[in-house]
Specification:
Layout (H helix, E strand, L loop, with lengths): L1 H9 L2 H6 L1 H18 L2 H9 L5 H30 L1 H8 L7 H21 L2 H6 L2 H8 L5 E5 L1 H4 L18 H5 L19 H12 L7 E5 H4 L9 H22 L4 E7 L6 E3 L2 E12 L5 E8 L5 E2 L6 E3 L4 E11 L7 E9 L5 E8 L4 H7 L1
Antiparallel strand pairs: 1-2, 3-5, 4-5, 5-9, 6-8, 6-10, 7-9, 10-11
Helix pairs in contact: 1-14, 3-5, 5-6, 5-7
Bound molecules: iron/sulfur cluster (2 copies).
Length: about 375
């Protein structure tokens, strides 16, 4: 909903400024490319140079190695999100065969990233990414987009042509566009709002001593001579939905506990009669979601005082550990009054966590139990 709201107001700023594809491509890979191979005209020259040229082997070879290294780095960091950094570091110091599935994952991710950043690039935005497809449903004439001011730029012509307006038809905006479109033909689905054409055209305008902003961030309405309306039904609806989402997320986060508990009855007989009374068996799944060890003690709530749970005075879980334990609830014959509902609380030793789950204790009728005595 935040993306819906922001897109309705500011167009595809997500694509141009925040999407990991754009961020990695423009802020990392293209910078390395420019550093090793020069600007776009130098790169075009290098493309045309035969592979027998040592300069080409050196520069392009260095670029391939650098791109492979960066792709592998991103793939490793991505894997670390799932296995943790210390675990990843441990895996990197032993044979790949010991963690072959992770090794295959990282290798495949590295190759896919390399293919993407070396060659595929903005084709991902055009062919694969679904967001580019539904942006037209989120944008209207008042959304901020990268647009060409045709009223100021048309008719085009060379600088010395007195009948021409401000666009000198130099094609710089087309040459720098990573998706290969001509923004002068109007807003197109391929435009990812990267603003490269704005910079290119502003540089031309500065050289010609004409006002900048022939291509600029503006609404289609303003580019056509109208006045942009910021408050619109679409913006209000998306804004309200975004606030509802933010409220729900805040509420969910405020109730977050760094531990999890689930209690289920063990399969088999619902209860067992022993000399001392009645026993119910449960399976306890206790999880420490935090990065520090946690020690819990368990206690019953709403249970007869004669019911107790032996062996649950102190349970310590390592960081991120989950333990599945068998829990016996014992009810002595003397205090037995039949089945009852109760809760089991697990409280951390530092007193900051108190998680609980409900369960029911089942047993025979009191008359039947007394007859067994
Ligand atoms: S038209 Fe301009 S803003 Fe849009 S993708 Fe091309 S260079 Fe980027
Ligand atoms: S860069 Fe500016 S002046 Fe050059 S063709 Fe594009 S819009 Fe016209």
């Amino acid at each position: 909903m935040l993306i819906f709201f922001v897109t309705a107001l500011l167009g595809r700023v997500w694509c141009g400024w925040t999407c990991p594809q754009t961020v990695f491509l423009d802020f990392v890979f293209r910078r390395v490319e420019r550093w090793l191979e020069g600007n776009s005209s130098a790169r075009r020259k290098l493309d045309a140079t035969p592979w027998t040229d040592p300069q080409k082997i050196l520069r392009r070879g260095a670029k391939i190695l650098a791109f492979l290294f960066l792709s592998a780095l991103i793939a490793h960091v991505f894997l670390a999100y799932f296995v943790s950094l210390p675990a990843l570091y441990g895996m990197m110091r032993v044979s790949p065969l010991e963690h072959w599935s992770n090794f295959v994952f990282v290798s495949a991710a590295t190759l896919i990233l390399f293919f993407n950043f070396f060659w595929f690039r903005e084709q991902l935005c055009l062919i694969i990414c679904p967001y580019g497809r539904f942006q037209s449903a989120l944008i209207d004439d008042d959304s901020l987009v990268v647009g060409y001011d045709a009223r100021r730029g048309e008719p085009r012509g060379k600088p010395r042509d007195s009948s021409a307006s401000d666009c000198v038809d130099c094609h710089r905006c087309v040459q720098v566009c990573p998706t290969g479109i001509d923004i002068r033909q109007g807003l197109q689905m391929e435009c990812i709002s990267c603003s490269a054409c704005i910079d290119a055209c502003d540089a031309v305008m500065t050289q010609l001593k004409r006002p900048r902003g022939l291509i600029r961030y503006d609404s289609m309405r303003a580019l056509n001579g109208g006045k942009t309306r910021f408050l619109r039904p679409r913006v209000l609806v998306y804004g309200v939905l975004m606030l509802v989402g933010a409220t729900v997320a805040t509420f969910a986060l405020s109730r977050y506990t760094p531990a999890g508990l689930m209690i289920t009855r063990l399969p088999g007989d619902p209860y067992t009669l022993v000399d001392s009374g009645v026993i119910n068996r449960f399976k306890v799944r206790l999880t420490n979601k935090s990065d520090t060890p946690l020690t819990f003690s368990a206690a019953l709530e709403n249970a007869p005082t004669s019911a107790h749970i032996p062996g649950f005075e102190s349970i310590t879980l390592a960081p991120q550990e989950e333990q599945v334990l068998q829990l016996l609830v014992e009810q002595s014959k003397s205090g037995y009054t039949g089945s009852f509902q109760f809760r089991i609380h697990f409280r951390s030793a530092n007193g900051q966590i108190d998680i609980s789950d409900a369960a029911s204790f089942v047993g025979p009728s009191v008359e039947y139990l007394n007859a067994q005595r």
